[in-house]
Amino acid sequence: MTTLQDPPVESSPEIGRERRRKEDQRLITGRTRWTDNIVLPGMLHLAMVRSPFAHARITSIDTTEAKASRNVVTVLTGADLGESQGTLINAWAITTDQVAPAHPPMPTDRVSFAGEIVAVVVARTAAEARDAAELVDVEYDELPAAIDLKAAARDEVLAHPDLGTNKSAFWKFDSAEAGTGGDVDAAIEKARGDGIVIEREYRQQRLIPAFMEPRSTVVDPTGEQITMWSATQIPHILRFALAATTGVPESKIRVIAPDVGGGFGGKLQTTPEEWLTFCIANRLGKPVKYTETRSESLMVAHHGRDQWQKLTLSAEKDGTVTGLKVELLADLGSHVSLVGGGVPVLGAFMFNAIYKFPAYQFNCQTVLTNKTWTDAYRGAGRPEATFAIERLMTELAAELDVDPIEIRRKNWITHEEFPFMSVAGLEYDTGNYEAATDKALEMFGYDDLRAEQKRRRESGDPIQLGIGVSTFTEMCGLAPSRVLGQLNYGAGGWEHAAVRMLATGKVEVVTGASAHGQGHETAFSQIVADRLGVPFEDVEVLHGDTQTSPRGLDTYGSRSLVVGGEALVRAVDKVIEKAKPIAAHLLEASVDDIEFADGRLSVRGTDQGVAITEVAAAVFAAHDYPEGIEPSIDSEATYDPVNFNYPHGTHLCAMEVDTETGGVKIRKYVCVDDIGTIINPMIVAGQVHGGLVQGIAQALWEEAVYDDAGTLVSGSFVDYLLPTAADTLSFDVDHTSSPSITNTLGTKGVGEAGTIASTPAVVNAVVDAIRHFGVDDVTMPCTPERVWKAIHSRGAGGEAATEGAAAPHFDAAEGTEGAGA
Ligand code: MCN
Questions:
Q1: What region does 174 belong to: left with phi over 0, alpha with psi -120 to 50, or beta?
Q2: Percent helix, percent strand, percent coil in the chain, to nearest 5
Q3: Phi-psi bin for 150: left (phi > 0), alpha (psi -120 to 50), beta?
Q4: Ligand 1 — pocket residues by CB below 6 A?
C-alpha cells in the first residue's frame, strides 16, 4: 500500500522540516469521521423552521400538519421549550454599558433576522424532518427592518424596538489620553495649514466564511455524561458556555470536535442549533443530530467584516506621517454574538500598522441591524485595519507623486527600533520590514514591471498594468489573559499541554488547541520529536475532546503554535527535568551530573547514558526508583504569554486590467512574510496560500448582499463568488525571519497572515492600473462592472466616490454615549 507518510529518517532536525501532514492520510482517503457521519442507535434528526422575514412579529405557529407527518416525533417551538433552551452568550462586552438584546436560541414572539429559527421538527430521518418543516404554518406581522448600516446607526429603523436604539457600544482610543502619543486633532489641523491631509471612506463588505464542512451537531444524552459532537473550533468554550447557561454541570458534559472541515473563524461560535440539539436530546432522552444544509450555512452561520471606515491621515509635505484618525461603524447584525462585539476593536491596535504615527485616535460604534450576526472571520479586525491603512498610504504616495514603497520606507519602524512601543500602546516584539520588502521587490522584478507599466500607459494599451503594494503586521497569538481582561474579554488566553511517556517508548501529547485544518498533529509532533529526541512517528497528538484534553481554550487568532506550542515545549521540559533524578538513580550518578541531549540522559563527561524512553519504561515498571520521587515523568504545563507576537510581511501584486471590459487578472503575486521560526514550511505554505486566496477573494469576488427587506440575495454559490482552484494562481511565497522574543521557539503565528495583507495589495493594484483615468478607489469586490464604471466616470473616483457621495456622512462618535475604554 502506498502511504502519504514520510519514511522515518534518523536524527534529522525536526524544526523547519517539510513533513507531510500526519492527518492527511485519514482525511483524504475517507477514513475519518465527520460529525455528520456519526450514527447512533435510535438517533433522531432535527430540521429548523426559519423565518423568511428579517424583522417580524410571530402571530401564530400551527404545527398540526407537520406533527401528523410520517415519522415525525414532535415539533417544538420557543414557547414549548421555554427557559430550558438556555441562552446564547456574548463573551466580549466591549463596554460596560453595551446594549445587547437577549439571545434565546429560538425566540417566541419576534424574529430579528431572516433565517432565525421559529420551530424545530424532530423526525426519524433528516429528509422526513426537512419535509415536515415545510408543513409548519407560521404567521408573521412584518415589521420595518434595519438593514443599511449607516441608516441603522442613525436609529432610523430600530432592529429591536424595545432597546430604543441600534447603537450597541462606543469604544474609543486616543493616544493623547493614553499617553502613547500626541493630539491627533492638533496634528490634522496643523497639516491642513502646512502639510497634507488625506481623507477617505472605505467599505468593508460583508463576507461569509463558507467552510468546506457545514456545521453539524450530534448529542447523545443516554450515557453517564451528555456527549456532544460538533463541527466546532471551540469544544472547550462550548462546554463551558453550555454548562453556564443550561445549568447542567460541566462534569456531565463532554464535547468532542472530531475532524472538522474548516472554520476560518466561522466556527468560533456557540450556535442556536447547538443549544437546541442539546436541549431537545435531553428532553427526549434520545440521541439527536442536526446538520445544516449549505443554504442554511450561507444564510445563518455568522458572517464577517461589514464596516464603514472613515479615515483622516495627516502628513508633512515630505510624506512623514503626523497623525491618523479612524472612525468606524461596525455592523453586528441582529445580536451581539460570542466575540462579535470585540472584533472591530481588535482593529484598533492595528490601523497604525508598521508606521510611526506620532498621534492616533480610534473611534468605533458597533450597530445592531436585522441581518445575520457578524463575528470573527479570518483575521478578525486586523484585515480591516490593514486594508484601510495600506490603501491610505498608497493614496498619500499618489498625492505626493512618490513611489508607494518609498512612502512606506520613510515611515516604518526600522529593524534597530525593536522592541517598539506603538502609538496604539502595544509593544512589537521583533521585525525587519526592510529585509522582507527588499526580498519581495527582488522576487517581483519591481523595476521591470514599473517600466512595463509606463510603456503600456504611454502606448494607450487597452490592457493596463497595476502594481499593488501592501505591508502588514498583526497582533497574533491571541492570549495575554491580562490584556484580554483589560479589553473586557470574558475569558483568558492561556493554553494547556500534557505529555505522557508511555511504557513502550511512544509519547502521547494532549493539547487544548483544537485544529480544524491547520495540521497541529504534525507540527506539534515535530516540536516534541525535536525537543525530546524521540522519532516523529512515535508521537501521537490528541485534541478536540474535553474528556481527553480537559483544559484548553481552542484554536483561533493564530494562537495555537505560539501559545499551545509553547505550553507543549514547557511540558516537554518538565518531562526531562522529572526524568533526571530517575536517570541518575539508574546510572548510579549524581543528578547534578546528568545532562540531556538528543533523547538521552547522560552522565557528563562519560559515554554512560539512558534514553528518555528507557526512563519511561523503568518508571512504568517502577521496580527500582529513588525514594521520595513519584513513579511518573508525565508532565503538563499551562502557558499564558505576556505579549502578543507580531508577524509581518510585504506583498506585491501585478494586475492586468482590461480597460474595455473592466475585467481584472492577477499576473504575479509575491509575498515575503516574517513569521519567525518556521516549524513546518509545507504547512506554512498551505496556510499562506489559503489565506492569500481568501484575501484576494474579498478584493475581487465575494460579497454577501441583502436586499432592502433583509433577504440575503447572495445565498448560494451561484451568487456568492467563492473562488475555486481555477480562479487562483501560483503564488511566489518566501520568508525572512525575525524570531519572536515572546516564546522559546521564536515562532510567530501564520494562520491569518495571507488574508490580512492580500486584500489591500490587490485593490492597490487595481487602482494603480487605472489611476491615470482619475480613479482613486474602487469599492470591493472590484467586479468588472465597478472597474469599468470607475474608468468611465473619469475623475469621479469610480463607484466608491459615487457611493460615498450618495451615502450620508457618518461620525462614529456622533451622538453616542458610552464608557469607551
Ligand atoms: N506554523 C508553523 N510555523 C510557524 C507558524 C505556524 O509551522 N511559524 C504552523 C502551526 O504549527 C500550525 C499552522 O502553521 O500547524 C497554523 O498555526 P497558527 O498560526 O498557530 O494558527 P492556528 O493553528 O491557531 O490556526 C488558526 C488560524 C486561523 S485564526 C484561521 S481563521 C484559520 C487558519 O488558522 N482557519 C483555517 N488556518 C486555517 N486552515 C484551515 N485549513 N482551515 C481553517 O479553518
A1: beta
A2: 35, 25, 40
A3: alpha
A4: 262-265, 378, 516-520, 523, 555-562, 675-680, 683-684, 687, 690, 747-752
Q: How many other C-beta atoms lie within 10 A of the C-beta of residue 714?
A: 18
Q: Which atom of ligand 1 lies nearest, measured to the CA of 562?
A: 20
**Under 8 Å CB-to-CB from 184, ≥6 apart: which residues?**
174, 175, 176, 314, 323, 324, 325, 359, 360, 361
- Centre of ligand 1 from the C-alpha of residue 271, in Å: 23
How remote is the C-alpha of 301 from its chain's centroid?
A: 14
Q: Tell me the pLDDT tens digit for each residue of 325-356.
A: 999 999 999 999 999 999 999 999 999 999 99
C-alpha 136 – ligand 1 centre gap (Å):
43
Quick check: 310 and 384 in contact, CB under 8 A? no
**Cell numbers 522529572: residue:** 578
Mutate to test the pocket of ligand 1, among 34, 687, 694 (most ligand atoms within 8 A of CB): 687
* For helices 272-284 and 235-246, angle between their N-to-C axes, nearest 10 degrees: 60
Kindly write down the DSSP assignment for every residue of 318-337, as one continuous string. TS-EEEEEEEEEEEEESS--
pLDDT tens per residue across span 3-30:
344 444 444 589 999 999 999 999 989 8
Q: Reply yes or no on whether the pLDDT at 457 is more than 90.
A: yes
Ligand 1, pocket-test mutation among 558, 568, 698, most atoms within 8 A of CB: 558
Q: Which three cell numbers stand for residue 266?
A: 466561522
Side chain identity, residue 2: T
Q: Length of the chain in residues, anyone?
A: 821
Distance in angstroms (rounded) separating the CA atoms of residues 451 and 468: 15
Q: By the 8 A CB rule, do 527 and 14 touch?
A: yes
Cα–Cα distance measured from residue 582 to residue 703, given in angstroms and rounded to the nearest whole number: 61
Task: Write down the pLDDT at residue 768.
Answer: 98
Rounded to 10 degrees, what is the CA torsion of 562, 567, 569, 572?
Answer: -160
Q: Cell numbers 434595519 label which residue?
A: 146
pTM: 0.95
Distance from C-alpha of 21 to C-alpha of 680, rounded to nearest angstrom? 9
Q: What is the whole-number distance in angstroms between the Cα of residue 656 and the centre of ligand 1?
A: 31
For residue 726, give the DSSP letter. Answer: G
Q: Can you give the pLDDT at residue 259?
A: 96
Q: Which residues contact 149 (CB under 8 A, 6 or more apart)?
A: 306, 307, 308, 329, 331, 367, 369
| Cβ 780 vs Cβ 790: under 8 Å | no
CA of 477 to the centre of ligand 1 (A): 10
The SS3 of residue 62 is strand
Residue matched to cell numbers 472541515: 261
Place of cell 410571530: 58
Q: State how far the Cα of 125 lies from the Cα of 128, in Å rounded to an integer.
A: 5
Element (H, E) at 283: helix 272-284
Instruction: Please name the residue ranges forming H helices in 490-565.
Output: 520-532
HSE toward the beta carbon, residue 252, CA cutoff 13 A: 14
Q: Reading across the β-sheet that carries 664-674, which strands appear in turn?
A: 463-473, 648-658, 664-674, 732-736
Hey, which of 34, 750, 752, 755 would you mutate to test ligand 1's pocket, going by the most ligand atoms within 8 Å of its Cβ?
A: 750
535 cis-preceded (ω within 30 degrees of 0): no
Contact 646, 421 (CB under 8 A): no
**How does pLDDT run across 173-199, given as a tens digit for each residue?**
999 999 999 999 999 999 999 999 999
Contact 259, 198 (CB under 8 A): no
Answer whether residue 286 shows pLDDT above 70.
Answer: yes
